[in-house]
Amino acid sequence: MNKKSFASDNYAGIHPDILQAIIDANQGHSKAYGGDIYTHKAIDLFKKHFGENIDVYFTLTGTAANVLGLSSLLNPYQAIICAETAHINTDEAGAFEKYTGSKLITVKTDNGKITVDDIKNQLFAIGNQHKVQPKAISITQGTELGTLYTPEEIKKISNFAHANNLYLHMDGARLCNAAAALNVPLSVLTKDVGIDLLSFGGTKDGMMFGEAVIFFNNNLSKDFKYIRKQGMQLLSKMRFISAQFIALLSNDLWKKNAQHANSLAKFLKKEVEKIPEIKISREVQANAVFAYVDPKIIPLLQEKYSFYVWDEITSEVRWMTSFDTTKEDILEFVAFIKETIAEAF
User: Fold this and answer.
1) In this structure, how many other beta carbons lie within 10 angstroms of the beta carbon of residue 230?
2) Last residue of some domain: 205, 234, 249?
């Protein structure tokens, strides 16, 4: 068996309950393109978690959920304001710009979170025909730097957005981890604080594939079924996404998986802090651990364990934990770090 990876929660396998749900759905024939009973049940579960007055659409990937969802908000002369570190800016190969023809206006942050003041500074050219026009704000929960927005922080942004005729989108690839860490229902970080559009992640929380685009503002969703089809994300055998969401959103599996990953990140931080040569670089709020590691040993560690170098200049690395990470995995990893340091120095 391969060593557990600390590169991303995407590297993890499928939760056994979710894999069983796929197997159970693989019985006989079922209506295609979302007309099946599994999709109807999954959407009902989303409404229980996020509120009745929502529209829900499934996609295969998080990039598709972000790009297609955001494309429904904009004209090509309009723009999204987001953190410089946002996934739509750094890790989607320019898909947003290519597909929408719109622009990203990025804001530099120290912690991955943008504020109302950051947004205000980008609204100086409203009405100027020579300038791209901001139309939406995108925030990530939890952020690419492992930080979390509180409900109060999100509400402040949404109030400002709506007062200035802007929409608020949330990239919720790790929303489950954020809600579990803050010990609140999913709706408290979304519907209750004024999110207009949510990209909800399943893959990082134990699913094989599948994300959801959730519209809290129903005026924005009227044409999305065409946008999704044109965007090549209308899966014919949609029951196999839907069955996974049924399992994830039932019996608090989403929360149990996320709580486990979060707690193992804190355990990893605690164990790594015992190594004098390594310094934890950021607060651990969910399932990401950032640390400064001597560049001499990084490639030696990567010979056995996968993880990403977050900042080459400062030699900062990122270690992610998943629903299937164990304490034994972490203890083995930490022992290997100690062994590698001893041999290198």
Assistant:
1) 13
2) 249
Tokens of 313: 């200049």
Name the nearest CA neighbour of 303 among 268, 273, 333.
Answer: 333
| pLDDT value, residue 344 | 86
Q: Which helix (H) or strand (E) covers residue 258, if one does? A: helix 253-272
Q: What total of structural domains would you count in the chain?
A: 2
pTM (two decimals): 0.96
Place of tokens 């069955």: 243
CA nearest 172: which of 291, 88, 239?
A: 88
Spatial separation of the C-alpha atoms in residues 328 and 301, rounded to whole Å: 17
244 and 306: one domain? Answer: no
Task: Find residue 170's DSSP bridge partners.
Answer: 139, 198
- pLDDT tens for each residue of 65-87: 999 999 999 999 999 999 999 99
**Tokens for 336?**
């290997």
Q: What is the CATH number of the domain that holds 59?
A: 3.40.640.10
318 and 201 share a domain? Answer: no
For residue range 175-210, list pLDDT tens digits in order: 999 999 999 999 999 999 999 999 999 999 999 999
Four-residue CA torsion sign, 57, 60, 65, 69: negative
Residue 166 placed within a domain: yes
Write the single-letter amino acid at 27: Q
Q: Which tens digit of pLDDT belongs to each residue from 240-255? A: 999 999 999 999 999 9
- Expressed as residue numbers, the domain containing 134 is 16-249
Q: Measured between alpha carbons, how far is 345 from 294 in angstroms, rounded to an integer?
A: 11
